[in-house]
Amino acid sequence: MPLNATFLVSAGAAAASRVARLLPERSLSPYSAGVLVRGGREGLTLLGTDGELSAEARIEAAVHEDGEVMVSRRGLAALLAALGEGDAHLSAEGSRLTVRTPGGRFTLPALSGVSGLPALGMPPAVGTVDGRAWRAALAPVAGAASREHALPIFTGVRMWSGGGKLRLLATDRFRLARAALPWEAAGEVDVLVSAPLLVELAKQGAGNVTLHSGAGRFGLSWERDKENGCSVAGPVLGAAFPHAQAEKLLAPDPSCVAEVDPGSLAAAVTRAALSSGPHGRITVETEDGELVVRAADEQGGESRESVKATVHGDRLTRTYQARYLLDALRAFGGEPVRAAIQPDLRPTVFTTAQENTVDLTYLVVPMQQRPS
Questions:
Q1: Pair 170, 231 in one domain
Q2: What is the pLDDT of the chain when averaged over all its residues?
Q3: Final residue belonging to a domain, choices 109, 136, 165
């Protein structure tokens, strides 16, 4: 049956853009270049897949005749983005999809030799989180994941539920970040999911986010408003991180604890990094009522700056890679941060000094100090 529907251009453009961004540009799947435009009782639905990852976006529309047609995914996104505001009329006419506006008529050819999509399906819903808390937790955790694909386990974010909390953890072996946020459970989840995928998904949602998991697949769905929403599902990565080992790292036995404003310390580290040399080495010394940030390099010069802090315990000196320390400090925004500095080269553990909706812990491994 031919497709025939009327919809708001801005809603259609947003949905087509989301599906286009969420799926890879290149794939061996014959479906990868296309998006299936389907009209039915629930309005218009755009569906795309690369054979593993699948994306679906809903658009509020008045559907006059049910039907479906597959067209170029990026072609549809580009066309709808160029149409501006107002209503548009969409119809499948023979081997073409036609979009009419009050002043124009535009067509896209149907993809030949491709019909329908493989039935990948969305796993069952296992729980819901607040969208704002989800994004606040995911950003620093996913940022701690490795970019090296030689070890895929470290390119993912582990997510698991329990005790009314959803916990996220990622590491690249030099730093580790864990966050916990309130979780409205409908089941249980324990998966390892690609960090870059989650970062892209976090940009899409508004309001509550529902997590789906089962049969080796993971998915997210959200509603931008009552009628317009989106969902994405894909395969999980391999085995999750060793739980006992991670928990041991997250329970520090510090020789010194410092409470400091992360913005002030980050600013000092940024300035010290100008003199930190090619390896970005900066040194932090604990003193009475302050942290002293130092850096020195034959070519870059020297830097020394004091930052007010509340310090308890031994006077210690630790050397860090500047970018790792900056990532940790920036993850906490403007809230006071507590740094638990451990003996030898054990990780320094950063936590929030005040209660918050998102409970964030960030570990940074110190560098070997140069002999004096």
A1: yes
A2: 89
A3: 109
Say how far apart CA 151 and CA 300 lie, in whole Å: 34
371: its two tokens: 């002999």
161 and 142 together in one domain: yes
CATH number at residue 73: 3.10.150.10
Q: Is 191 helix (H, G, I), strand (E, B) or coil?
A: strand
Q: What is the DSSP string of 98-136?
A: EEEETTEEEEEEPPTT--S-----PPPEEEEE-HHHHHH
Q: What letters, b where the CB count within 10 A reaches 16 and e where it falls short, cover 80-92?
A: bbebeeeebbbbb
Q: What count of residues does the chain have?
A: 372
| Structural domain count, the chain | 3
Residue 53 CA to residue 120 CA, distance in Å, equals 8
d(CA 311, CA 354): 17
The β-bridge relationship of strands 184-185 and 67-72 is unpaired
184, HSE (Cβ side, Cα atoms, 13 Å): 10
User: Which residues of the chain are modeled with pLDDT < 50?
Assistant: none
Domain that holds residue 184: 125-248
* Per-residue pLDDT at 369: 73
Is 335 found in the same domain as 267? yes
Instruction: Write the pLDDT tens digit of every residue in 188-246.
Output: 999 999 999 898 888 776 678 999 999 889 999 987 655 578 899 999 987 666 667 77
186 and 282 part of one domain? no
Q: Which phi and psi (to 5°) does residue 324 adopt?
A: -70, -40
AA identity, residue 1:
M
One domain, residues 193 and 244? yes
**Which residue matches tokens 């403007």?**
334
Last residue of a domain, one of 248, 276, 294: 248
- What angle is formed at CA 49 by the lines to CA 46 and CA 50, rounded to 5 degrees? 155
Q: Considering just the CA atoms, what is the radius of gyration of the chain in Å? A: 25
pTM of the model: 0.86
User: 90-128 pLDDT, tens per residue?
Assistant: 999 888 999 999 989 999 999 875 556 666 678 999 999
Residue 366 sits at φ, ψ, to 5 deg, of -70, 160
Our CA angle for 281, 285, 291, nearest 5°, is 110
